[in-house]
Amino acid sequence: MMAKYKYVEEFELEGSPKSIYPYLQNIGNLKEWFAAKIIVEKDNIINFMWDDQNHFARITHSQVNKYIRYEFLDDKKQIVVNDASYLEFRLSQSELTRATFLKITDYSEMVNENDLKALWEELIEQLRNVSGS
User: Fold this and answer.
1) What is the pTM of this model?
2) pLDDT digits over 31-77, tens only?
């Protein structure tokens, strides 16, 4: 088993959690900024394709307009019992300024923090462009 790293970053976005959440949960919207090819398979297994490789996941936790967590499965589309990789998007809004924040938690085998930071900055810029936030 490879070592894993938990990368956490928070980004300020324009727009309300209600307007941003569909871009984190809806497959059609995710295709616009997160992965060019996403297929929903039987049993609600989601296949995110990056660099022509399959990455199978399922939604394990969600609350509309608040957060969603994708837990990644093994190559046989089975649940990883111990130490599963996951990706969580969590939205919050400042009551004082009304600014919306998206907190990303990326727990994966990608361990280079600089690479992760560059990746997420690019992805969030794409999200801002497609969502108008």
Assistant:
1) 0.93
2) 999 998 999 999 999 999 988 899 999 999 999 999 999 999 998 99
> How is residue 67 written in tokens?
């957060």
Read off the amino acid at residue 52.
D
From CA 87, how far away is CA 101, in angstroms rounded?
16
Domain that holds residue 54: 5-127
Number of domains making up the chain: 1
Rounded to whole angstroms, the Cα distance separating 90 from 10 reads 9
**Does any domain span residue 133?**
no
CATH number for position 26: 3.30.530.20
Say if 132 falls within a structural domain.
Answer: no
Q: Does any domain span residue 104?
A: yes
